[in-house]
């Protein structure tokens, strides 16, 4: 097992930040947390999380790994505070679902080389510290985004957090590839769920529709039943990629509607090509050395579905992920 960092600081103790804090405490990592809500700080302290009363006091220890688990609208101010009270030994990452805008804010604050994007592919429709769980982020896939300027030491710290701290796997990507992918598998589903919920609860006889709603409706609208502002902010932050996907979906739905109205066959819509079978690790596992080309090689591996599962004397250990659709809740 790799030694944990000297300190892990989590700024924001909502669903993801709070769940991560609980997970790391159980894994015997030293965790210091902060949240702007004093009631949340109190509840987190009762769960065994060391609590700081300010951002400055939370981040002041040299060499810390700082995880920013705050809404995108608060990132710029938090990054500026972090830059003012830390030095180059500090690593900063976030856990949001959009990466390119966050890297831009990190660069503006002067954190560019020591910023690493991170996105755990797990969650629920609920929010807040009351919804947190130490199991939510264990054994899931995380996306880690880097660029050519990312410091190798900062990247390694975040990989340790993911693989050692949460027993998870890290798919290494660049920001654009990540944002385009999550538009398809997370952000567009949020938009479609909201549209479906609105469709069923409006129009004629909404009471009948609600009375008859069962499993398929529940599953299709689950993510629209939480905080709509969170969904709106997430979709808008990745607006360009989401818009491209929505236009593609809309075109397919328009064609489907026309075919249904004219009585034509619609197998083209419902019969999706089968996904690739899972490719388990073992013989397929390999290592990428932490040499000069580490960032380029790891991003290339990530685009083929190979994830970092640990660190050894040879470098980063990779194994192929399953390729079929499905998995943890976005």
From TrEMBL:
<dbReference type="GO" id="GO:0006571">
    <property type="term" value="P:tyrosine biosynthetic process"/>
</dbReference>
<dbReference type="GO" id="GO:0070403">
    <property type="term" value="F:NAD+ binding"/>
</dbReference>
<dbReference type="GO" id="GO:0008977">
    <property type="term" value="F:prephenate dehydrogenase (NAD+) activity"/>
</dbReference>
<dbReference type="InterPro" id="IPR008927">
    <property type="entry name" value="6-PGluconate_DH-like_C_sf"/>
</dbReference>
<dbReference type="GO" id="GO:0004665">
    <property type="term" value="F:prephenate dehydrogenase (NADP+) activity"/>
</dbReference>
<dbReference type="InterPro" id="IPR046826">
    <property type="entry name" value="PDH_N"/>
</dbReference>
<dbReference type="InterPro" id="IPR003099">
    <property type="entry name" value="Prephen_DH"/>
</dbReference>
<protein>
    <submittedName>
        <fullName>Prephenate dehydrogenase</fullName>
    </submittedName>
</protein>
<dbReference type="Pfam" id="PF02153">
    <property type="entry name" value="PDH_N"/>
</dbReference>
<feature type="domain" description="Prephenate/arogenate dehydrogenase">
    <location>
        <begin position="6"/>
        <end position="290"/>
    </location>
</feature>
<dbReference type="InterPro" id="IPR050812">
    <property type="entry name" value="Preph/Arog_dehydrog"/>
</dbReference>
<dbReference type="InterPro" id="IPR036291">
    <property type="entry name" value="NAD(P)-bd_dom_sf"/>
</dbReference>
<keyword id="KW-0560">Oxidoreductase</keyword>
<comment type="similarity">
    <text>Belongs to the prephenate/arogenate dehydrogenase family.</text>
</comment>
<dbReference type="Pfam" id="PF20463">
    <property type="entry name" value="PDH_C"/>
</dbReference>
<dbReference type="InterPro" id="IPR046825">
    <property type="entry name" value="PDH_C"/>
</dbReference>
């Amino acid at each position: 097992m790799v030694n944990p960092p000297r300190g892990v600081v989590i700024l924001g103790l909502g669903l993801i930040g709070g769940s991560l804090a609980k997970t790391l405490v159980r894994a015997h990592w030293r965790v210091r947390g902060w949240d702007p809500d004093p009631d949340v700080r109190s509840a987190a302290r009762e769960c065994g999380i060391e609590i700081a009363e300010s951002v400055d006091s939370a981040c002041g220890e040299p060499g810390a790994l700082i995880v920013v688990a705050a809404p995108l609208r608060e990132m710029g101010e938090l990054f500026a505070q972090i830059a003012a009270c830390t030095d180059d030994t500090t690593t900063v990452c976030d856990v949001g679902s959009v990466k390119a805008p966050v890297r831009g804010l990190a660069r503006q604050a002067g954190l560019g080389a020591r910023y690493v994007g991170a996105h755990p592919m797990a969650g629920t429709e609920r929010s807040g510290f009351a919804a947190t769980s130490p199991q939510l982020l264990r054994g899931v896939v995380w996306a880690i985004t880097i660029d050519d300027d990312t410091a190798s030491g900062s990247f390694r710290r975040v990989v340790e957090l993911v693989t050692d701290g949460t027993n998870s796997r890290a798919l290494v990507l660049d920001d654009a590839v990540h944002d385009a992918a999550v538009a398809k598998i997370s952000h567009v589903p949020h938009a479609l769920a909201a549209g479906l919920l609105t469709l069923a609860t409006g129009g004629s006889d909404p009471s009948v529709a609600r009375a008859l709603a069962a499993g398929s409706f529940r599953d299709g609208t689950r993510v629209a039943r939480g905080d709509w502002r969170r969904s709106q902010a997430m979709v808008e932050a990745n607006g360009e990629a989401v818009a491209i996907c929505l236009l593609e979906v809309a075109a397919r739905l328009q064609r489907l509607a026309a075919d249904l109205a004219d009585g034509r066959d619609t197998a083209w819509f419902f019969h999706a090509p089968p996904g690739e079978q899972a490719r388990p690790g073992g013989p397929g596992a390999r290592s990428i050395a932490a040499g000069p080309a580490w960032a380029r090689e790891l991003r290339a591996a990530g685009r083929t579905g190979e994830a970092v599962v640990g660190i050894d004397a040879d470098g980063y250990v990779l194994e192929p992920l399953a390729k079929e659709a499905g998995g943890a809740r976005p």
